Amino acid sequence: MANHTSLPLAPVMPLTSLGNVLVFLFSILLATAIVFLNSSVLTSILMNKSLRNENRFMYMLSTCFSDICSGVSYYYAGVLDVRDHYSSPTRTFYIAPTFLGLSYMAILAAQADRYHAVASPFKYSQRMTRNRTLLVIVAYWVYAFVIVAVNNLVPVGVAKRVTGIGTFVGNIFTVVIMIGLNIRLFYIATFQLKREQTVTDGDSKRSSVYLIIVVAVFFLGAWLPIFIHIIACNFLGSTCYAFKNEGTDPIRILPRLNAVITPLLYVRGCTALRDTLLTHVWRRPCCRR
């Protein structure tokens, strides 16, 4: 991932004190936890046919896969002394941050999907087929890496201007949309779904809506600091990099922590997913027949 392959890479902090060693071990542990938990949830969904038949679990698969890639990339971007900036020789060409952005787009798309499903269930069943859901997922993956390609092909000055404007506008609009969808979904789950005639179906819809609301709340809590920081830096015209590297910057560590929290929320909020995880994926080998 480095720009110059001959450039020596050092640990995220010089291993000269106990505190620095703990930071180094924390980065390794965080990357490992992200990969392990998201791989477990992804495997559980793939093993359970009934889960794979629901559109909302397709977005979970997308989130888990992008977070697995983010965790793998963090072994480089977070464990070592790396800065993901245009002038940095150790940058990942914005590939590592793109995986985090893909998780953000997946959760936003999942919110819109749940809103459509509970607000217009009949239209949703007609419009959002499995193929169309997969098309939405493929579309934002392609879009994300087209942006990465463009940023790495155009001159640095142009890339900075395009990224600055796009990030500024995109952050504001998507945060407003996500907050607005959260409020609307909470209202629907609290009031409208209680009037469902079929109790089981109503409870299922409420649980799926509440799950995506909780996931989005935690997501916003982890991402708002970096969004606010980037927006403020765009206004001030600064470079937005106050820390030595990615692994010591708390506002860039928070989204990675969220990549650990999200699969735990999925498991906690979905009984079928939790049962598959505990009985098949995490089941001890000695207990299998």
UniProtKB/TrEMBL annotation:
Keywords: Cell membrane, G-protein coupled receptor, Membrane, Receptor, Transducer, Transmembrane, Transmembrane helix. Residues 37-266 form the G-protein coupled receptors family 1 profile domain. It comes from the Eukaryota. The keyword Transport does not apply. Its main location: membrane. The chain crosses the membrane at residues 20-45, 57-77, 92-112, 133-153, 165-187, 208-232. Pfam families: 7tm_1 (PF00001). GO terms for cellular component: plasma membrane. It is a multi-pass membrane protein. SUPFAM superfamilies: Family A G protein-coupled receptor-like. One of its GO terms (molecular function) is G protein-coupled receptor activity. It is found in: Cell membrane. This is G-protein coupled receptors family 1 profile domain-containing protein.
